[in-house]
Amino acid sequence: MNKFKFIASASIVAALLLGGCSNDKTENAAPSTTPTSTQDSKTADYWTVVNKTTWTDDFDGLKTSINKVVVSDEVPLSDGSKKSAVGVSFTIENTTKETFNTFPDQAEIVTSTGEQITADLFQSEDIGGEIFEGVTKKGGVIFFLERGNAKDIKWVTLKWFAKHGEAMGDGERMDYDVKMEF
């Protein structure tokens, strides 16, 4: 099971981190006649980078960005099967002297196809928790679909929170509810 987790995680993380962004939905399995980014070819062949899916927020100096969203109905698993998934690439930067807590790696996603899924903690990168002064975290969060196909998704809504302070006590809280149209 650990080998499965490592292989699936490594392939998904590589695809999220190496894939490029542009202005149109790009299928990476077939070369584009007019490439929008030289990085597109570095994304694993089974991912589609959904462009125009970026978002940024500044919660009192905690800057959170969604750099891109990727989808696939062909994510290979170690047992030889394939699964549908949505991946989201985040950057979180604390520009203050305070500490924040945020958990996009435990986010929930709602899809236009009627699914509500919690992030796969074993396949996602550890980008949540305490974010101390001056820290920047980057990483991908993976949502494996339980039914349906990623290619049919028209929009997703991501839900998670951020909070001031080192503990989960009484700090000011920001509840994120980010809808991204494909």
Question: How would you characterize the overall build of this protein?
Answer:
By secondary structure, the protein is mostly beta strands. It is 9% helix and 43% strand. The protein contains one helix and twelve strands; from the N terminus they run αββββββββββββ. Strands 1, 2, 3, 4, 5 and 10 form a six-stranded antiparallel beta sheet that branches. A hairpin with a 4-residue loop joins β7 and β8 (116-118). The N and C termini lie far apart (34 Å). Residues 1-42 have low confidence and may be disordered.
Gyration radius, rounded: 16 Å
SS-based class: mainly beta
Q: How many strand segments?
A: 12
Main sheet characteristics: 6 strands, antiparallel
User: What portion of residues is helical?
Assistant: under 10%
Report the span from N to C terminus.
34 Å
Topology:
Layout: H1 2-18, E1 26-27, E2 48-50, E3 55-59, E4 62-76, E5 82-94, E6 100-102, E7 108-111, E8 116-118, E9 129-131, E10 136-144, E11 155-164, E12 173-181
Antiparallel strand pairs: 1-2, 2-4, 3-4, 4-5, 5-10, 6-9, 6-11, 7-8, 7-11, 11-12
Please summarize what this structure is.
With 182 residues, this protein is mainly β. Helix content is 9%, strand content 43%.
Features:
182 residues; mainly beta; six-stranded antiparallel β-sheet; 12 strands; 43% strand; disordered N terminus
